[in-house]
Fold this sequence. Notes:
The chain has helices at residues 39-49, 68-78, 93-102, 123-131, 154-171, 187-193, 204-211, 239-251, 258-284, 289-312, 320-351, 355-377; strands spanning 26-32, 55-61, 82-86, 108-111, 137-141, 183-186, 218-222. By secondary structure, the chain is an alpha/beta fold. Helix 9 (258-284) packs antiparallel against helix 10 and helix 11 runs antiparallel to helix 12. Manganese (II) ion (MN) binds next to loops.
Amino acid sequence: MTDAPLRAPVSALPPRPAVAAGAPDLSVIVPTFNERDNVAVLFQRLAEALDGVAWEAIFVDDDSPDGTWDVVKDLARRDPRARVLRRIGRRGLSGACIEGILASSAPYVAVIDADLQHDETRLPVMLAKLKDEGADLAIGSRYVEGGSSSSFDRRRQGISSFATTLAQKLLRITVADPMSGFFMIRRERFEAVAPQLSVQGFKILLDILASSRGQLAIVEVPFVFGTRHAGESKLDSMVAMDFLGLLLAKLTNDAVSLRFLLFAAVGAIGLIVHLAALYLLVSFTAVPFAEAQGVAALVAMTSNFLLNNFLTYRDQRLKGAALVRGLLAFYGVCSVGLFANVGVAFSIYGQSPVWWLAGAAGALMGVVWNYAMSSLFVWRRR
Ligand code: GDD
Ligand code: MN
């Protein structure tokens, strides 16, 4: 038998226009989580604002419990300009935006919130800046002449401007509103920085700005940040942590991840939990020391697991049966980690008997092992 090619060579395909008729010029990415009462209204408004533009909307939904993805699917059956990416087992605004943009083949992509706080009538202006004036990135900005965030209360206004100043100073960013969630970018420019972006957190624009190191031609287009239509905000107090994590990662050239620091901090808390449990058992029960030490270790591992599940891996939180399976896997990982810890400490102590140096090296070995193995076997990416 001859090796007949499975597919016809490209040259044998019928000639095609460079861009198929109807291929979108602009993809509007809409990250959603529990936005079922907003998506149809937004889509309608996009259709009005982008009249005359070949556009599509890509909704990226993190398996919203309110079934937002299902509402968008209904929409998509009636209007092919709508599509939905439903992500299961993952959470995160930045990650959702990245996946949405990477799913597009249009030359221009925009990101807009689903809750109508962003002004979609600015999109044609942003598109003109990219198409006609050669900009790479157009930012919907609250902090340039003509823009505002008057819907913010005093507290949020204060937090927002503090975070903005911090980011500008530390990361040497000059744009007025690097925290905006509303922007348009050339897709190929985005794809060039995409491998450096963090999927954790929610400051995708800040990440793009920091990662592209002044290589982009940027314009800011003023807009008025409105009030949320239906539903509620998803940004909780944890976003402050995500923000600091992003600053840290960008400042250290991605050498230090917030996840590892959190994991190590949880480990330190675990040591305190361990000692407290041991103290209680030894002082107030008749349990012999060896058993007490074992029980204390179990208590510490369990509390470490729960804390990590709550904090370190909150975007991949395990629930139900997966929580139990994860706990057992975590016990396994930590038990081996203990051997690694003691082994390293012992061999270093053998070479130079400085107890704290050997102890610290062992502990570091243990935490690095536990971290690496946990991300492989406990909170593995699905
Ligand atoms: N897929 C997905 N996954 N979408 C999410 C997630 C998530 O984990 N979290 C939030 N979203 C979606 C929301 O459904 C909404 O469409 C959009 O992201 C913004 O979320 P909000 O919860 O409305 O955020 P906000 O109004 O507090 O913050 C906005 O303004 C900030 C500026 O002050 C966002 O645009 C931020 O990006 C922006 O920095
Ligand atoms: Mn909002």
